[in-house]
Design brief:
The protein has about 260 residues and is of the alpha/beta class. The protein is built from nine helices and six strands. The strands form two sheets. Strands 3-4-5-6 form a four-stranded parallel β-sheet, sandwiched between helices. Helix 3 (about 75-90) links the parallel strand 3 (about 70-75) and strand 4. Helix 2 (about 45-65) crosses helix 3 (about 75-90) and helix 4 crosses helix 5 (about 130-145). The radius of gyration is 18 Å and the shape is globular.
Length: about 260
């Protein structure tokens, strides 16, 4: 199980979550990586993805892990990277022939064109974390792309997990044979009142369309988990964009059921 972070967790501090220990109990090794110094990192370029590919290969070789039983996943941009790495492998770009057995993604942005439009057109409505994110992302988009998705649609499509504007879903087509489980909590009352968002501004907008596109492409192994009243931060405050929306036992069982 690969978990690619922006910064490694502080392992000296006990985690309130069980996922790693549940995986360990099932005989699954968890590989913690930091593949990029950029924040946030969405794996928009193959050069950055190749760094993770080298890390994975080194561990696979050292521990003699079957390359047919590799999983990857994460929350937010980490989940985006997980799906992008799976696409990279499915497109035959892995230097070492790595293939991803399954991916989990938790409330991740999938279409960077949609994300761009949300940030640039709706941020005047945003509050709290959404406003902070919008201000963070404005210069990030300027660094990543030549301009807006209206003018540079191909750049955004090539850099995204999924594209609303492309009939085939953009890069989504390369995931039609990959097992995927997606988690989100589209509590629009909370998103609207607490974060100033419309449906267009939340990642669920991408996640549901992505799921439908994969199913239309023939992927019978994509599962969408929609939760209600599960999202809270570590202080107990309501937050739909949180790891707590994940049923960790269910996720662990989902992984073990795919093992060969």
């Amino acid at each position: 199980m690969i978990r690619d972070y922006s910064a490694l967790p502080n392992f000296a501090v006990p985690s309130p979550h069980q996922f790693t220990s549940l995986c360990s109990n099932e005989g699954l090794m968890t590989l913690y990586t930091v593949s990029s110094k950029n924040f946030p990192e969405f794996f928009t370029s193959d050069e950055t993805i190749a760094v993770l590919d080298e890390m994975v290969y080194e561990v696979v070789q050292e521990h003699k892990i079957p390359i047919t039983n590799i999983f990857i996943g994460g929350i937010s941009a980490s989940g985006t990277r997980a799906l992008r790495y799976a696409q990279y492998c499915q497109q035959g770009k892995s230097k070492h022939g790595i293939q991803i057995k399954g991916v989990f993604s938790v409330d991740s942005p999938l279409d960077l064109a949609r994300f761009y439009e949300s940030v640039h057109k709706h941020r005047h409505h945003f509050k709290e974390g959404m406003l902070w994110e919008a201000e963070l992302m404005k210069p990030v988009f300027e660094q990543l792309f030549s301009g807006s998705p209206t003018k540079y649609e191909e750049e955004f499509r090539n850099a995204s997990v999924f594209s609303h504007s492309d009939d085939s879903g953009g890069n989504a087509v390369s995931l039609k044979n990959v097992k995927i489980i997606l988690f989100h909590e589209p509590d629009i009352e909370w998103w609207m009142n607490e974060r100033g968002c419309s449906y267009f501004d939340i990642n669920s907008y991408d996640i549901v369309a992505f799921t439908l596109k994969l199913r239309s492409l023939g992927n019978k192994n994509v599962e969408l988990i929609t939760t209600t009243q599960k999202g809270f931060d570590r202080q107990g405050n309501r937050n739909c964009h949180s790891w707590t929306i994940v049923d960790e036992v269910y996720l662990t069982n989902w992984i073990t059921q795919q093992l060969e």
